[in-house]
Specification:
Blueprint (H helix, E strand, L loop, with lengths): L1 H38 L5 H6 L3 H30 L3 E9 L2 E2 L2 E6 L5 H13 L3 H6 L9 H10 L3 H7 L11 H7 L2 H6 L4 H4 E6 L2 E2 L6 E7 L3 E7 L3 E2 L8 E6 L35 E6 L12 E3 L3 E13 L8 E2 L4 H4 L9 H17 L28 H4 L8 H6 L4 H15 L3 H5 L3 E2 L1 E13 L5 H12 L2 H8 L3 H10 L5 H5 L2 E20 L3 H16 L3 H29 L1
Parallel strand pairs: 12-16, 13-14
Antiparallel strand pairs: 1-16, 2-8, 3-7, 3-10, 4-5, 4-9, 6-7, 9-16, 10-11, 12-15
Length: about 575
């Protein structure tokens, strides 16, 4: 009985100790809160803690709540301002050495003169369009280009004989049609070589071959052939004497347009016309000035220089730095789907959009457009051209079948693929969101040019004989031409056309182009964040100081307070649980 009373007494004592521990635990939490409120550097809270009168405590509570509301409003306003991602633009004029731009020349007549003359001679013997192409000359070997053209045109002979509509057949010899119907190597064999087209080339007064200049060519559906002149030099001083001078043969006076050629057959001079195009009937050369290591867009940019003229193109460099997301949208490189098909150079927006259009056409129409950049990677030209009209239906080309009238419509570019490509191109061009769809934006690091273009007749008056002497005797154009050209017929044609007696007419086939840096002062615009993260942090600190009197040390006090509070509540509870076990 005594033992039972002792056990109960011990149990009651343990309960009393637990109750006292809980009491000490509660007192400790209150003390932590009281110590923080009385000692914190946050304005208002110590006054609430220390006030003994009701009206004083109420005043400081209202003041603290009001300040907290203004602080919250200020925070929201500043964060919203930051999330607008506004930009400001700084404009700088800087004088420095500038890279000389690439210059691309695209002549309107790139077909070799001997090829044109050969077909010209065929038309002398007949007025019949197809007979002219199928004439055989046993004593003369037919060049590869002519063989390919005759093979391609043969299926159309029956169609022509049935209907005899000359205008319907203009499409066969369009520049762009030749481009889509021939392999690049075959077409290249019918084009004029670079060295034969260029009479004079000088950079900063020295011959181009002594100036580390590179000549690169590429084929184009409208111009057939373009040549890009690249120089790695930087220019410290502007002026025409420090630039590039090119004299080339860009006229068409070689072709005797009147000798035994009727008005009908004159429509079919090979590689000269581009029926239905805004560029139809033009002569001379297109000059495109573009940043180094970029692709030009011959149809969309550049200046025309007619034969018998001199053009000056003064260039002033301008640069622009654009911000990435979230401040704006700019691109540093081509999207992956474009890089997959193309050997891309330095990024340009116009190139990106055109290649994107080509990808859209390829995806929807299962063909590529000859009017847009062609895929360069894995490029065996196995893609079908949308403009290709040379796979005639059986009812138009079979030997024992008479063609019907629908075959003429086939010639007029009414094929399904062609209509599909044009439809995709038109819709893409009109699409306001095309930049987002193609992932093509303005370049993040943009280099462009302000250009001044002037052209005058050249050569004139007494300068004509001096120019002839300089080109033929000093630059030795004809001498160098005869050394490198094995074609006897072509040598005779050049010799006659550029003879001293024919110098007036011969020089009118030339054009002179001067491209130079007019001023080495670079106009640079740079986008910068109008409100940066540092600005936000500073303004938030100002708001905290104004409405709460807070600083970084105040946050340290808050972290310490919550740490002690956490320890007082949870750590002692855990100890109590362990003791009960």
């Amino acid at each position: 009985m005594v033992q039972r009373i002792n056990v109960l007494g011990a149990t009651n004592k343990e309960k009393d100790r637990d109750h006292q521990d809980d009491h000490k635990h509660n007192v400790s939490t209150r003390e932590i809160i009281s110590q923080f409120a009385s000692g914190t550097s946050i304005h208002g809270i110590p006054h609430i803690q220390s006030s003994r009168k009701c009206y004083s405590k109420t005043f400081w509570i209202v003041a603290f709540i009001t300040a907290t509301m203004f602080l919250t409003y200020g925070f929201v306003t500043l964060i919203d301002k930051y999330l607008q991602y506004d930009i400001r633009i700084a404009s700088i004029q800087e004088r420095k050495a500038v890279a000389f731009p690439d210059v691309t020349l695209c002549p309107y007549r790139a077909m070799d003169i001997s090829v044109i003359k050969s077909f010209h001679n065929r038309f002398r013997e007949t007025d019949n369009f197809f007979e002219a192409f199928f004439l055989k000359n046993a004593s003369t070997a037919i060049p590869e280009f002519e063989k390919a053209l005759i093979k391609t045109l043969r299926p159309f002979k029956k169609l022509y004989e049935t209907f005899g509509s000359i205008s319907a057949f203009n499409v066969l010899l369009k520049k762009s049609t030749l481009f889509t119907m021939m392999k690049p190597s075959v077409l290249r064999s019918g084009l004029i070589p670079n060295w034969e087209m260029t009479v004079r080339c000088r950079f900063q007064g020295d011959p181009c071959e002594q100036s580390n200049i590179t000549f690169k060519t590429f084929q184009h559906p409208v111009f057939h052939k373009c040549m890009t002149i690249q120089t790695p030099k930087f220019i410290n001083t502007g002026g025409i004497e420090r630039g590039l001078e090119i004299v080339g043969i860009y006229g068409s006076k070689f072709v005797d347009w009147t000798a035994n050629i009727t008005w009908k057959t004159s429509f079919f001079m090979i590689g000269i016309t581009e029926e239905g195009s805004a560029l139809s009937g033009e002569q001379g050369v297109k000059v495109i000035v573009h940043p180094q290591n970029t692709d030009p867009v011959p149809v969309g940019e550049g200046y025309n220089v007619p034969p018998g003229s001199s053009a000056h193109i003064g260039v002033k460099v301008k640069e622009a730095l654009h911000l990435h997301r979230p401040y704006g949208k700019c691109s540093e490189d081509y999207p992956k789907d474009i890089s997959y098909w193309y050997d891309t150079k330095k990024y340009r927006l116009m190139n990106c959009l055109q290649k994107c259009f080509q990808n859209k056409i390829l995806e929807k129409c299962q063909c590529i457009s000859g009017k847009l950049p062609l895929p360069e990677k894995n490029n065996n030209y196995t893609f079908q051209f949308c403009e290709n009209i040379f796979d005639l239906p059986v009812n138009c080309s079979a030997p024992n079948v008479k063609p019907d009238i629908s075959c003429l419509g086939y010639l007029q570019d009414n094929k399904e693929h062609s209509r599909c490509a044009q439809d995709v191109f038109d819709k893409s061009s009109a699409n306001r969101n095309i930049m987002e769809e193609c992932d093509c934006y303005i370049p993040c690091n943009y280099t462009g040019y302000d250009m001044h273009y002037s052209v005058t007749e050249w050569p004139l008056g007494p300068e004509l004989d001096i120019t002839y002497y300089r080109l033929m005797d000093i630059d030795n154009f004809m001498e160098e031409f005869n050394k490198t050209n094995p074609n006897a017929l072509k040598k005779e044609m050049y010799k006659k056309h550029f003879s001293f007696e024919n110098r007036v007419s011969g020089l009118k086939d030339l054009a002179k182009i001067n491209v130079y840096i007019s001023d080495t002062t670079v106009s640079r615009t740079e986008e910068m964040a109008a409100y940066t993260a540092n600005d936000l942090l500073s303004d938030l600190g100002g708001q905290l100081g104004l409405w709460g009197g807070m600083s970084v040390l105040s946050f340290c006090e808050i972290f310490q307070f919550f740490g002690e509070l956490f320890s007082a509540i949870f750590c002692r509870t855990e100890q109590k649980v362990q003791s009960l076990k």
